[in-house]
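FAQ

Q: What does a record look like?
A: Structure on top, sequence underneath. For example:
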């Protein structure tokens, strides 16, 4: 099997890896398309000491499922958290905070930048044929964007700001736009601005952010500078949602957070069924978000392009190119 391998914050293309063998409650999935995420790039910077095959945004077809043959040949996406089901967070209904969780392509579980991956059957969701592979690969990040609405009540008339118009920020903006809020996005790059304006979403440069006027601010940059813009924009008793992971530490004036009674919310994974429905309905449009697709053997080049400022979604197609096992 061919795959992209991450070790000691270095990626390489490898051949001859063994095809994984699924257990009785697992499925072997042939990966059709996988997306490069900002978290993948942060792994290269030391966000988590992961060694193995990265990648967690994918769509593929089930090739084997020893305990449930009805899944064979079904087109699927999958939840990225592999959970134990018996710890307190799992039993309390918060499986994404499972004490023993492993995470696809991020923590103790080989990921999607390969010809095959394995996931538990309970993690899988069917994809309607009306959704293309290039759209279905956005289910995981779209679900993450939708988690904002699971955590914060956003209503029409509220002033909302998204800081960052990259891979995730574009999706967060489209999700927030469905609420009827007064939405603005801080966007640096012309193509990002163009996409937002095509969808009727207002965008501004960071120097035009007003001080203390926003009810809710979502930081989708994963950078200290993005957080500081969010802090500048939020009103007293407003809410900041942190929507991106990044390596490193950040200085924070906690006194101002206390004095202004700011609510800080960390936000990660979200609802897959709702994301699939939103894509199917056409209320979120991911066309225009893909900037390039690379065969698996050019995965290192895919990472290099994805890391360039202003780049939106870069895809990796394990079935293109030489394709040998």
């Amino acid at each position: 099997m061919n795959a992209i391998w991450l070790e000691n914050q270095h990626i390489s293309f490898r051949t001859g890896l063994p095809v994984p063998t699924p257990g009785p409650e697992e499925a072997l999935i042939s990966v059709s398309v996988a997306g490069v995420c900002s978290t993948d790039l942060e792994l290269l910077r030391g966000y988590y000491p992961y060694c193995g095959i990265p990648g967690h945004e994918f769509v593929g077809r089930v090739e084997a499922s020893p305990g449930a043959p009805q899944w064979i040949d079904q087109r699927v996406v999958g939840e990225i958290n592999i959970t134990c089901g018996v710890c307190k967070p799992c039993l309390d209904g918060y499986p994404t905070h499972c004490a023993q969780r492993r995470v696809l392509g991020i923590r103790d579980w080989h990921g999607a930048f390969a010809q095959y991956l394995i996931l538990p059957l309970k993690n899988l969701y069917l994809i309607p044929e009306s959704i293309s592979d290039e759209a279905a690969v956005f289910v995981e990040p779209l679900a993450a964007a939708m988690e904002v609405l699971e955590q914060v009540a956003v209503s029409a008339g509220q002033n909302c700001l998204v800081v960052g118009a990259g891979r995730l920020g574009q999706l967060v903006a489209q999700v927030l736009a469905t609420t009827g809020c007064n939405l603005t996005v801080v966007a640096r790059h012309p193509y990002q601005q163009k996409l937002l304006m095509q969808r009727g979403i207002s965008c501004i440069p960071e120097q035009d952010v007003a001080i203390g006027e926003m009810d809710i601010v979502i930081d989708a940059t994963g950078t200290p500078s993005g957080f500081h813009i969010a802090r500048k924009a939020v009103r007293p008793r407003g809410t900041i949602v942190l929507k991106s992971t990044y390596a490193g530490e950040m200085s924070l004036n906690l006194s101002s957070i206390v004095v202004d009674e700011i609510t800080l919310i960390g936000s990660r994974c979200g609802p897959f069924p709702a994301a699939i429905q939103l894509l199917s309905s056409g209320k979120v449009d991911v066309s225009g978000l893909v900037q390039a697709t690379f065969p698996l053997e050019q995965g290192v080049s895919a990472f290099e392009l994805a890391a360039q400022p202003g780049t939106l979604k870069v895809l990796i197609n394990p079935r293109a190119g030489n394709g040998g096992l």
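Q: Is there anything notable about this one?
A: DSSP finds ten helices and 17 strands in the chain.
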